[in-house]
Predict the structure of Adenine DNA glycosylase.
Amino acid sequence: MSFSSKIGNWFLQNKRDLPWRNTKNPYPIWLSEVMLQQTRVSQALPFYNKFIKRFPEICDLAAAEESEVLKLWQGLGYYSRGRNLHKAAKKICHELNGKFPTKFKELKKLPGVGEYTASAVASFAYQTPVAVVDGNVFRVVARFLGISTPINSTEGEKIFKEKAQLLLNKKQPDLHNQAIMEFGALHCTPKKPNCLFCPLQQECVAFQLNRVNELPVKIKKTKVKDLFIHYFIFENEAKDLLIQKRDFDGIWKNLYVFPSLEYTKKPTLEAVKQDFKSNFGWNAKIVRFDKKPKHHLLSHRKIQAYFWKVETPEKQFYLLKKQFNLQTTCLQTIKDYPVPVLIQNFIKAYISSS
Ligand code: SF4
């Protein structure tokens, strides 16, 4: 029996019943694949259900404001996926008559759609014989064929793509691709793969050579950098607050945060107070909410955040608003803005203490 028949049989007996698996409609398939990038199924599933309920058709998504899309995306991380999802939906609805591209090459022209997503949509929705290569597929192929080339090297990407394509069942690419991804997610797992009861055991090079724990090989590339952020909660007498849209490239683009000072090295408190004065223009009394920082981890940033309360005279409040292009909100309305989880957690704590 071939590799593909074995994992196909395994899949039919072991697959999870997921909503995007019971359709050939490219919209839910695409939505789920974008959400599943670097995200576990259990984490993505509630977000998928929320999106499909609110935007049953792609043009419903295209018609929404970006801030609503980001609000629904809040908590899923990697927000560029949400922004690109919205851009792609607009492109399909406004430039392609609401019709999803059917060709692999055309799919790749959509914002945020790379090789992986295009392969998944093309094979699941249209049975295009193109192999999907995600983290699970890299692992299964590396172990099954005993390949030591790092999966995140240029050479590795080329080799694994070729090998995955050779293993592909061209007659049933949808079943094959779903099967190998699910097999990697549930059976040939990163730690403690179930080799003893594996249908591939006889031919699996890594198992036969006792190299399962060595493969796949990955080069450590991204250095996680420290980031120290001091957020300032400017509050006037009426208990209004000021927030700012991060409308520039970098982390959390287009999400809302409190005005802040950011540092790559841990500053002294005196330095923060000095910088506050020179940045925001007056010698305010600033009080930290908590002496301990809030820790937050992103894929390439290790954040320590501090929150400061600033009782703000009316005149300063409106000067700041004008100078930094800020928006006025309050504890009742701030919940409607898309914000990073770090800010959301602070707001929850702030509301319950107010
Ligand atoms: S034998 Fe082990 S390493 Fe090889 S494919 Fe099966 S689960 Fe993966």
Notes: The chain has a mean pLDDT of 94.
